[in-house]
Each structure stands twice: as structure tokens, then as C-alpha cells.
Specification:
about 300 residues, alpha+beta, 6-stranded mixed sheet, 5-stranded antiparallel sheet, 14 strands, about 30% strand, disordered C terminus
């Protein structure tokens, strides 16, 4: 079964919803890193949230969601483009000790310095155009609450999320109250009542149920009394857009002096992509070319071809 994102809308009410199920994509991401279970849960929930939010964006580009932590987890990154292609990674502190029952606050906000960042990076930028970025403190004790608070403050959109992840699957439900359009027959009271009813129905969903039930069954179980319009499903998938050129650009950002110092000490720079595990090697000639030409010789090795 392909991964599945199902969009739907309540008829005669300004409420839209989405359900997402990520198993193949999630398993591919986990195959490149060995994370402790609490990290898997948080990263999987962020992955499901990114898929849900990105599906509502009407632009050609990539949404990047990041949690910058001040505890055992230093960074969580999820990217989702307009074609629902996803990748994700986590960076842990070198001395990280993570208990099985560690909370989100303990992992990323233990000193009150954690931050949540959303970046919208369009593919077709106009000259001089920069990516949009919103940065806020971590406000909430779960990934869902943090994003709900962000959406209310930054986008003024009532949003409710239910997220769950384990080592096998990441799933999520999103409900969003649509802005009232002038000239519609429904009153503000009717719209509010419809929104409250949708949230009450969503709130009956338990985490165990979300983890164990496919999205089509969940939709029927939650909203069987409602009249909803269901759209064609979308199938998210894993995709990493790393290239040798991009790794070279990263090395250029370090500066010629630092790169030359590293190559003099190590004789060769070996870099693995944090998202897909692909291996890139740069020797002295490659590093010299970085600062003299835009052409790089091939030196990429697939993860399963690396010899130790």
C-alpha cells in the first residue's frame, strides 16, 4: 500500500480536513538513522504535520519545519515539497542520554530556549526574493500544540492537529476552520458551531487508535454522521534532493581557508547526507576546484556501496 494523504471538506460548513498515513516514507527515513524511541515519536509526528500543512499551500516550492532544541535533541528537520516528497533528520547532542519516557520539553526545551521555525522556499523565486521564514518560541507540550499555536498567531487560522508515530508508521489528522467568505448564507454562529462539532469529533480520536487504523477507516469512524466531500488521495513519498554540487556549495560557505586546513589534516573530506546517507568524497583536487570552477568531478557513492 502506498502512503496516503486524504483531503476532505465538510459540506455546508467552513471546515476542511486531512488525514495522512506515512509508512513507506517513514521506514525509508528511519533506515538511515538509529534514533531512540522518543526521538522517533517526535520526528514522526513532525513529519506527519509537515505533510498535512504542506498539502494546503498553493505554491511551487518546499516547506521546511524545524525544531531547534536546547536539550538532548539539538535539531529536528522535516522538508515537504509541493509534490508531497518528504525527507527528515534529527541531530542529537554528543552526550545525549534519552530516557524512554522523556517528554518533548525535556528533549528540546529543557532550558526554555527551544525554537520552532517554518520556512517556505519557492522554486520560482523572483529576482531578489527571499524565502519566507517564521520563528517562534516553543509554545506547547506536544508537536501538535506547538503548530496549532503557531498557526493561530502567524496565520490567524483555527487549526487542530492529532498526531502519532512509532517505529512503523506516522499518522495525523488536521482540521482547519476556513475564513468566512462574504455573501455566504451561514452565520458566524453556524460556522462556529460547525467548527466546534468537528473538533469534538476529532477529539474522540485516541493515539492508540490513530497508530493502528488506516486513514479510510478513521474517516468513516470519525465522521460517519457528517456530509463530507472527499477528494482524490495524494501519495506522499520519500525523496532526497542532495547532490554533489550542493555539498560543494556547503563547503564553499565554510571558506577556502577552513577547507584547505581540513584537507591538509585529513587528506580527504568524507561527507554523508544526513537525510539519505549518500556518501560524498572530496580530495585535494576536488577542494581546489571548488574555489576555481563550477564543475565538480564525480565522487558520490550510494550508501550501500560504502566499504568500511
Amino acid at each position: 500500500m502506498k502512503d496516503n494523504l486524504q483531503k476532505f471538506m465538510f459540506e455546508h460548513a467552513g471546515v476542511r480536513g486531512e488525514l495522512v498515513e506515512l509508512s513507506e516514507t517513514w521506514q525509508e527515513i528511519l533506515s538511515h538513522q538509529n534514533y531512540p524511541q522518543p526521538v522517533k515519536v517526535i520526528l514522526g509526528e513532525l513529519l506527519a504535520a509537515a505533510s498535512l500543512l504542506s498539502a494546503n499551500l498553493k505554491f511551487n516550492g518546499t516547506m521546511v519545519m524545524q525544531i531547534h532544541g536546547d536539550g538532548p535533541i539539538k535539531l529536528l528537520v522535516v522538508e515537504c515539497d509541493s509534490a508531497q516528497r518528504l525527507r527528515a533528520t534529527a541531530k542529537l547532542a554528543a552526550d545525549a542520554v534519552i530516557a524512554d519516557n522523556a517528554t518533548l520539553a525535556e528533549l528540546v526545551h529543557s532550558h526554555g530556549q527551544g525554537r520552532f521555525v517554518i520556512t517556505l522556499d519557492p522554486n520560482d523565486k523572483l529576482p531578489g526574493q527571499q524565502a519566507y521564514q517564521g520563528i517562534v518560541p516553543l509554545d506547547g507540550d506536544s508537536v501538535a500544540t506547538i503548530i496549532e499555536n503557531y498557526m493561530m498567531r502567524s496565520e490567524q487560522l483555527d487549526t487542530k492537529l492529532w498526531l502519532a508515530a512509532d517505529a512503523q508508521v506516522a499518522r495525523g489528522l488536521l482540521l482547519q476552520k476556513l475564513p468566512k467568505i462574504g455573501g455566504t448564507e451561514s452565520s458566524v454562529e453556524d460556522e462556529t458551531e460547525a467548527w466546534n462539532r468537528a473538533v469534538i469529533l476529532g477529539s474522540t480520536l485516541k493515539q492508540e487508535e490513530l497508530l493502528s487504523t488506516d486513514v479510510n477507516t478513521l474517516m468513516t469512524r470519525l465522521f460517519w454522521e457528517e456530509t463530507i466531500r472527499v477528494f482524490d488521495p495524494v501519495h506522499p513519498q520519500f525523496h532526497c534532493n542532495c547532490t554533489r554540487e550542493k555539498v560543494g556549495d556547503m563547503l564553499k560557505m565554510l571558506g577556502e581557508e577552513e577547507v584547505n586546513s581540513a584537507i591538509a589534516e585529513l587528506n580527504q573530506l568524507d561527507i554523508n547526507c544526513d537525510f539519505c546517507g549518500k556518501h560524498y568524497s572530496f580530495d585535494q583536487v576536488d577542494c581546489a576546484q571548488l574555489f576555481t570552477t563550477n564543475t565538480l568531478v564525480d565522487g558520490v557513492v550510494a550508501p550501500n556501496a560504502i566499504k568500511h
